[in-house]
Amino acid sequence: LTLVTPTVCFGRGGAPSLAAMGEKKTMFGPNDQAAIVVRVALLAVACWLAWDIRLLAVKNYGRVIHEFDPWFNFRATEYLVANGWKKFSTWFDTLVWYPLGRPVGTTIYPGIQVTAAVMYWGVNKLGWEVSLNDVCVFVPAVFGAIATISVYLLASEVSGTPNAGVASALIFSILPAHLMRSVAGGYDNESVAVTAIVMTFFLWTRSLRTPKSWIIFGPLAALSYIYMVAAWGGYTFVLNMVGLHAAMMIMLGRFSSQLHLSYTIFIVLGTLGAIQFPVVGNKPLRDMEHVGPLGVFIAMQVMAFCEWARNKYKMSEESFKEFRFRVFAIAVALVAVSLAFFPAGYWGPISNRVRSLFIKHTHTGNPLVDSVAEHQATKPEAYWIYFHLVFYATPIGFVMALLKRTDARWFLIFYTVLAAYFSRKMVRLILILGPAAAICAGMMIAFIFEWAMEQFTVVDFPEEEEEEAEATTPSSAVKKGMKTSVTPAGGKKKTPKKEEKKSEHHLSVQLLKGKSFLEAGYRVHTTARKIVAALLMGAMAWGAYNYQEHCHSMAANLSEPQIMLRGRSRDGGFVIIDDFREAYWWLRDNTPEDARIMAWWDYGYQITGVGNRTSIADGNTWNHEHLALLGKCLVSEEEKSHKITRHLADYMLVWSTRYAGMWGDDLAKVPHIARIAGSVYSDIYGNGYYMESQNQPSPMLRNSLLYRLHGWRLNPSVEPLKHFEEVYTSTNMMVRIYKVKDVAKRHEPFGEYPPWIQKNVISKSKAYNQRQRN
């Protein structure tokens, strides 16, 4: 005879479920009417928090587009609204990448532009006169609220309890890991892409819930994925995440009809939609980042065929294993043979951004990728900054997911592990870890909350539980004539169904399965349980207060638009430092409309977006050799640089923010500029340009044009310039503009380098290795 112990009670998703303990005896059950009202109210609060915290930038600076990339997105949206989709999709922009230009319509992920344009048209059709600028400013805040709802849906699905969904939504609504890319004014692709990521993941997991779930949620998951493709180049993460989950379900023996049908629809419909975007083209059919999901798709069809044959011919287990092995062997052979017919070079290389996720940041082999700050590896302290207490709650929720592994929970497990790994490799990818961390933390909080509420809402164990407690000893069981579980020799113990059902009334009993003496004490000390519950609730309240304080503090920092700054005057008051926009406005108002402005590529989007002037390069960074030519102009000596610059630009713009106490200016970027130039031009020694100790330049940097443009008239050691004339220096000496003297006659036709540059510069360059191009 063995002790009859309570059975662990889990809901559908595997989380301890109060629903299974009797909804009439507990609060906040899934179908409790009062609980539903409370959850809806809390979800509304989460959405309001998500909206409100993202408006700090608007409250402090007004309705301003932030940073660099958002200015390109805004300018592209203006073009779409003014000219319509047909012209937008074939738009060739001659104000950028002079003298080459850029076919924007075929090199852009248009999701955010189309979204903003539809919102703009819709709002104005309703009679509200709203400017396009205002719509673009508020898009990130709107999608912050929608992302919060998406996290609620995904968390409820994977946990099996809507309480975890509400907790996750409240956490995510103000999580700095998401705020970093979704404050009002930060009109960038990621601000809408995170919503698409989470919604796609929810619809995918929801499609696996029942054998018929795929009918509705399979196609919806594919459509959500298509929107994700339109929104952001990170769509490959979503594709591979779904592919990995499907593959692991097969390997774990969880193959099902809904898995097969959902994945088939996802791949077929999703791929057909993805290839409609020119920027994607046929990449889903030939790039290495897409090979894995395609392989899983083939394996899924083979697996479905094997299952069909098994059912049709009623194969035994041994026969089926042998049959399946042979079918897979034939499939592998056919794939191998078919690959031999593909032309050489058909399969594209892994992009450098993806390569950088698996090797040390500064050793990707591409100096352009290595120069981008957001591609750097994440420092450990960043997790506290962007997650705060969620960082410590996430592992607990992750373990809870491991305790009861359903299809949906397996997805959360894989998602959390992969996102945590990628976030460690690249700081910008902390963004994709945010939803997973919030869901894991929400599961932990919901578990504690449900248990604590039970202690206050259930006075004591009901009589039937007391009877069951008496039945926990063989003697009492015999006295009452009750059945007890028996463990046959060498067999498994059997628990009578009646007792098992009774044991499922309380979460409290679940926690102490098999611990008879603890169970007895647990039942008796109701006051102690209430004290512990009160302490836990108090601890959660304290944590919630500190968490929201940290999030609002971070929101204030993340809401700085960078194109504008706040400083303090001598009397201690706040002042707006607007040097950058003032410089671009000066270009707009004081230079010819066709003026060409040479500056490092970081500022290209703002030159065209704010100044409405032609730039030499911008953040699209599509042409490595052209960036190297720009770098050569900046780091060469004045005389050598002018011979090239006079054919490309009318003005030169440099950032000199260190004179205002900000050290991230062009001199801080010059080592990367030189390495990029040196990767194509052998006369540039990439490692020779840097600032030595005590803020002194290296000999090569001291003689470079960039150093002299940066310091002329402000640094006594810099000699007067011969070929460049200072025409503007901003109020706080943060931006400097020079006019190029003796400018060469502009070359026609547009789209190719002037003959002198082709003969004397391009001909002496070396093409950058295409397999390392970003």
Walk me through this protein's architecture.
- The structure is a single chain.
- This protein has 774 residues and is mostly helical.
- The chain contains 33 helices and nine strands.
- The strands form three sheets. A five-stranded mixed sheet has the order 4-3-5-9-8, sandwiched between helices.
- A hairpin with a 5-residue loop joins strand 8 (724-729) and strand 9 (735-740).
- The longest helix has 33 residues, at 526-558.
- The radius of gyration is 31 Å and the shape is globular.
- The model is unreliable at 1-26, 462-495, 497-507 and 770-774 (pLDDT under 50).
Helix content: 55-70%
Low-confidence stretches: 1-26, 462-495, 497-507, 770-774
How much strand? under 5%
Alpha-carbon distance between the two ends: 69 Å
Structural class: mainly alpha
Shape: globular
Main sheet: strand order: 4-3-5-9-8
Notable features of this structure?
774 residues; 33 helices; disordered C terminus
Please give the structural blueprint.
Layout: H1 33-53, H2 56-61, H3 69-89, H4 111-125, H5 132-159, H6 162-173, H7 176-179, H8 190-206, H9 214-231, H10 235-251, H11 257-274, H12 291-313, H13 317-339, H14 352-355, H15 367-370, H16 381-387, H17 390-403, H18 407-425, H19 430-457, H20 463-470, H21 474-480, H22 497-502, H23 507-510, H24 516-524, H25 526-558, E1 565-568, E2 574-577, H26 579-590, E3 596-598, H27 604-609, E4 614-615, H28 624-635, H29 638-645, E5 651-655, H30 666-678, E6 691-692, E7 696-697, H31 699-702, H32 705-711, E8 724-729, E9 735-740, H33 755-760
Parallel strand pairs: 3-4, 3-5
Antiparallel strand pairs: 1-2, 5-9, 6-7, 8-9
Helix pairs in contact: 1-5, 1-6, 3-4, 4-5, 5-6, 5-8, 5-19, 6-19, 8-9, 9-10, 9-11, 10-12, 10-18, 11-12, 12-13, 17-19, 18-19, 19-25, 28-29, 28-30
